[in-house]
Design a protein that fits this description.
The chain is of the alpha+beta class. It has 12 helices and 16 strands. The protein binds 4-amino-1,4-dioxobutan-2-aminium adenosine-5'-monophosphate and magnesium ion.
Length: 468
């Protein structure tokens, strides 16, 4: 028997598919639904290449009872047959099945994705199977497209992809939210003279952690090969059970020599707009699906971001606006506080009605490496705030002056020995430079319109959960 080459289902819905009409095709995929009557079965088949299902029409008399029984929701099939224009509503083409091979059946009693319309909470409990739903197929295809667009954007702009280590001895954000990495037997660690764990006996000869950010090593890239970006996983052991925090998330961190804070803001704004435009241009079917199913204002919000320039506003003025708003916030507003989600969203959604970049933050609530302003109180940090999300980007111009930087680090009681390699960027040919970090999953929240960050990554990590 002559075997026909498999066609991916997405290719049955493109312009070129016209050439295949009235020809025999072969498709492979998983059954989404099967319905029909005694003489004919209609099977919706999906192979993940597109949100669209191809309808298989099977004349029941032409197949064995056993085969028909094995074709259940979730089962995997290889189907050959003629591609024809569909008479029915809802699809342009369908396949008149000639042969059906059941690669794997799925038990009707135990396959969890029987009916449509499962809640996102339920799907989180079966995260290993949820990519087979329309929603997660759409989200994960968009996730891929955004990752690709990120590399394309930076490559086209002459940035180099830089690999910061994942295991590190330094705490970039200084917040102490790090997961320890050790090969010591934690029930019985070797002890030093002071009776404490002797980390010189550990794998790396010192205590080590999973990185919270690739920035510090990224700065070594910027101050040598000019413009770099990282794109990798980062880890934070913060006990935040919120819809915007993960313990393992992906971050994109560009770092550029000779960029000041304004250049940095220009890049951040251009970068995000590029990504949103890319999503609208390349993920139309998936975004439209999510728009219709979950969030009817998604498309409008995405288009909206492209139209307007982002507001750029010093923190101090933002505090004034919030204080004068007459709004009752759960956490009252005062200068020096870190902004809560409710404050960020008020500024973006109610006051300005577009994205806002807040600059010049109190130094006490920002990291040690940010460039100090002359007022002695604020630093040249920038947070990009987005509708629905709040903070999507955090960044700054970096403190390039060796003395100012080390003074600040001493004020914060940092272990200077751990950062000698980092300080060499300021000792040898120091230069003005800037960078920022975009939370990949926060970007995906915005682009997909999903409301929980656990639903934009295949296998979310959060407190008390590391299954799958
Ligand atoms: O503001 P953050 O902590 O900044 C940094 O890590 C800097 N080193 C970045 C830099 O300047 N190179 O984190 C940056 C972004 C946040 O704006 C947010 O989008 C995301 O990372 N983020 C998280 N996303 C998901 N879960 C978490 N727990 C996150 N923490 C931060
Ligand atoms: Mg931040």
């Amino acid at each position: 028997m002559e075997t026909i080459r498999r066609t991916e289902i997405k290719d049955l819905f493109c312009e070129k598919a016209k050439e295949l009409i009235e020809k025999e095709v072969c498709v492979k995929g998983w059954v989404r639904t099967k319905r029909g009557n005694k003489s004919v079965a209609f099977i919706a088949l999906n192979d993940g290449s597109t949100i669209k299902n191809i309808q298989i029409v099977a004349d029941i008399a032409a197949f064995s009872e056993d085969t028909m029984k094995m074709i259940t929701t979730g089962s995997c099939l290889c189907v050959t047959g003629k591609l024809v224009e569909s008479m029915g509503k809802g699809q342009l083409v369908e396949i008149q099945a000639k042969t059906i091979e059941v690669y794997g059946s799925a038990d009707v009693e135990t396959y969890p994705l029987q009916k449509k319309g499962h809640t996102l909470e339920f799907l989180r409990e079966i995260a290993h199977l949820r990519p087979r739903t329309n929603t997660f197929g759409a989200v994960l295809r968009i996730r891929h497209n955004m990752a690709f667009a990120i590399h394309k954007y930076f490559n086209d702009k002459g940035f180099f992809y830089w690999h910061s280590p994942l295991i590190t001895a330094s705490d970039c954000e200084g917040a102490g939210e790090m997961f320890q990495v050790t090969t010591l037997d934690i029930e019985n660690t070797p002890k030093n003279e002071a009776g404490k764990t002797d980390y010189t006996k550990d794998f790396f000869g010192q205590s080590t952690f999973l990185t919270v950010s690739g920035q510090l090593e990224g700065e070594l890239g910027a101050t040598s090969i000019g413009k770099i970006y990282t794109f990798g996983p980062t880890f934070r052991a913060e006990n935040s059970n919120t819809p915007r925090h993960l313990a393992e998330f992906w971050m994109i961190e560009p770092e550029m020599a000779f960029y000041d804070i304004n250049d940095n803001m220009d890049l951040a704004e251009d970068f995000i707009k590029y990504l949103v435009r890319y999503a609208l241009d390349n993920c139309k079917d998936d975004i439209s699906f999510l728009n219709d199913m979950y969030d009817k204002s998604l498309l409008e919000r995405l288009e909206g971001v492209l139209k307007e320039s982002f507001v750029r506003l010093p923190y101090t003025q933002a505090i004034d606006i919030l204080a004068a708003s007459g709004q009752k916030f759960e956490v009252p507003v005062s200068w020096g506080m870190d902004l809560q989600s409710e404050h960020e969203r008020y500024l973006v959604e109610k006051h300005f009605k577009r994205p806002v970049i807040l600059t010049d933050w109190p130094k006490e609530i920002k990291s040690f490496y940010m460039k100090q302003n002359d007022d002695g109180k604020t630093v040249r940090g920038m947070d990009v705030l987005f509708p629905q999300i709040g903070e999507i980007i955090g960044g700054s111009e970096r403190e390039a002056d060796y003395n100012k930087l080390t003074t600040r680090m001493q004020e914060l009681n940092m272990n200077m020995e751990h950062y000698q390699w980092y300080l060499d960027t300021r000792r040898f040919g120091s230069c003005p430079h800037s960078g920022f970090g975009l939370g990949f999953e926060r970007l995906l929240l915005f682009v997909t319109g999903m409301s929980n960050i656990r639903d934009v990554i295949p296998f979310p990590r959060f407190p008390k959960n590391a299954t799958f």
